[in-house]
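Table 4 source record.
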Amino acid sequence: MPSVSTFLLPLSAASVIELIAAAFQADLPLFIWGPPGIGKSAFVRQAAELQGWTEADGSFIDVRLSQMEPVDLRGLPVPDLISDPNAPKTNWLPPTWLPFEGSRGPDAGVLFLDEASSAPPSVQAAAYQLVLDRQLGEAKLKKGWRLILAGNRVTDGGVAFRLAMPLANRMLHVKTEASLDAWTDWAMGEDIDWDVIGFLQFRPNLLSTFEAAKNAQEVAFATPRSWEMVSTILKTQPGQDVLETLIAGAVGQGVALEFIAYRALKQDLPKIDDILAGKSAQCAEKADVRYATTVALASRVIQEGDKNEQRAQAMSQHCIAWLDRLDIRFAAFFVNLVRRKKSLLLQGGTHTQWVEKHAALLGGKK
């Protein structure tokens, strides 16, 4: 990684997208650094979509520099024997997929150069002029297009080359890391399996085990991307033996065993229907059981909110009262989960009073 100033990525998905949008607005190239599987590409794509730039209409171009040769960017040299046969010259035919002036396609969008640090130095050199001057040879990028780059660090154990300093100095640099808050925001919007969401609230350190896996030279390890794979596996409902093997193949054997054990806690949970109805129920003192119970309650309330908001508001009030008596920290955990997805279910009456009283437990948010 170049020895230039870097900044820690904000802890919310909204802030990440806002940061990228600011780079779009300033028309400054931005390089996003980080380990594998933490969602660098996904955030760029989401930020572009909010501006109305998508692959479907050709206004979002995703290029993997690691898979390119210099000629793929620079184009092909073609002899010009017509303009002056006595003094032949060479013209360059630029690639058709780049949004140069005079080419077909949108006048504004995002050119996303992914895996840039994995590109060999010869390809990086070919990208110099594109990033620095917004042109290659005589072909110029359309003025409305923005440049975003992303890649892994040299220390991440993959194929990565140090970015040339002249190129690095012409860009903004942001260093990313896995964030449970940002991932949870995203996961609840993407309907990631509730068991995955609940487990990672209980074991936040297992959101990413990349560093430990790198040191142990393991090929399967936990990342935000591999947890999404686990969610997909759960939704296919394979047999138990196959399920455990597939999960281990996604996040590693040790993490998979912990996750399977967490899912088995469902038989130890109190009667969820009783709590939702405002009835008393006993809950074990084990932290993992209480985390699983809180997640189960939040998921039921959110699902009910899709059908009947008034009933879901009553259910959430019962949940908060029950969890408050159990342990106020789990009541706060419940509120944070529900409001990530459906904040309307926490408005009015005792909801508002409770949130105002315990704002400190909720990160100062009312």
